[in-house]
Amino acid sequence: MNIGIICYPTFGGSGVVASELGLALAERGHQVHFFSSARPFRLPGFKENLYFHEVPVVQYSLFEHTPYTLTLASTLYEAIDLHKLDVMHAHYAIPHAASAFLAKQMGNGKPPIVTTLHGTDITLVGSHPAYLPVVKFTIDQSDEVTAVSKYLADETRDVIGVKREIQVIPNFVDGDFYNRKRCTIRRSIFAPEGEPLIIHISNFRPVKRIGEMMEAFIKVRKQVKCRMLLVGDGPERARAEKDAQAGGVIGDVFFLGNQTAIVDLLSISDVYFLPSNSESFGLSALEAMACEVPVVAARAGGIPEVVADGECGYLTEPDNTEEMAARILELITDRELNRRMGKAGRARAMQLFPTERVVSQYESLYRKLTA
Ligand code: GMT
Fold it and tell me: Which of 118, 146, 209, 233 most suits a substitution to test ligand 1, by most atoms within 8 Å of the C-beta?
């Protein structure tokens, strides 16, 4: 099949999932065309069967904001004919489902559209009154709609008022790539005295609860000498730096910025910490589980569908920093418990979320639409 994938290029779960899906489909012999304003960071320079189309961001003095939705629709419309697209797959509803809809209308109703909902396109941005009508309309107009968790499918019905069928196709992880490695990064760089390492990876937006995260870490640090690795960047990073300074732990927190060596960093870590107050899935937690890192996360959104409480980590009440700190302390002081939960996380990730099975689910969906 000739498959068009539309996604964001920036650091963020939906772009990662779209990229990994495209790579796996190309591996299976499909012709995969990516459409984005820049090359998604998870896509390699060259891969057989995989093509990247840069969507122009055209500035004009009259525009205060560039109408990217339209240049994307034009780019898609031209590709429909030129590359004989059999299906267009929009990752993250805003504005990708709208652009795909427009292109399909221009293309006389072809090809079919699959829209995958990822999270904030429904829970935060999509539910904003300024976006809601167009989000609902474009979801209704898509030929197939998928959500990455049952929680998100339910939210789409409850919050957006969508009545149509939404198939749950979870996110996935490549267990060969996401695998606990023998240290390629020297652990002693961060933990010269063998201190336990707690890691968090995100785009540091308010939903990630960075303030609460630092509060919990300060409580843990008061009990046990430990260190924290913060990977990623975003609006809440400066606050985290200030909180770490004020809490007297700035010397114990490493702000590493955006990184590609995620597996290496996870492989030297003891606990993955995800205190978000809303998370449709929590792909980073799944990646940590695949690398045998026990997770401490808030019991929020779709996280309980991914992290089994008491089996591969612990779920806590959102915002309860006492409970979060207590759970982290348990995991960094009891080596046997840590190892057991790490192994259980790997087993769960490979049993429920392996790439092969999930990619086949998307492939079946495309085949059904193009039959
Ligand atoms: O909202 C974001 O964090 C961005 C979004 C994305 O598009 O990158 O992440 C969402 O999609 C990921 C991939 O499906 C999920 O693993 C994240 O849980 C989800 N984020 C939220 O729901 C906050």
Answer: 118
pLDDT of res. 58: 95
Please tell me the chain's helix, strand, coil percentages from 3-state DSSP, rounded to the nearest 5.
Answer: 45, 15, 40
Closest ligand 1 atom to residue 123 Cα is 22
Ligand 1 pocket member 111 (CB < 6 A) = no
Domain extent, residue 282, equals: 180-352
Task: Please state, in angstroms and rounded to a whole number, the distance separating the CA atoms of residues 226 and 254.
Answer: 12
Q: What is the dihedral of CA 261, 263, 265, 271, to 10 degrees?
A: 150
For 207-266, the pLDDT digits (tens) are 999 999 999 999 999 999 999 999 999 999 999 999 999 999 999 999 999 998 999 999
Identify whether residues 12 and 59 lie together within a single domain.
yes
Residue minimizing CA distance to atom 4 of ligand 1:
12
Q: What are phi and psi of 296, to 5 degrees?
A: -115, 115
Widest Cα–Cα separation across the chain:
66
Strand partners, 219: none
My answer on whether 309 and 324 are in the same domain is: yes
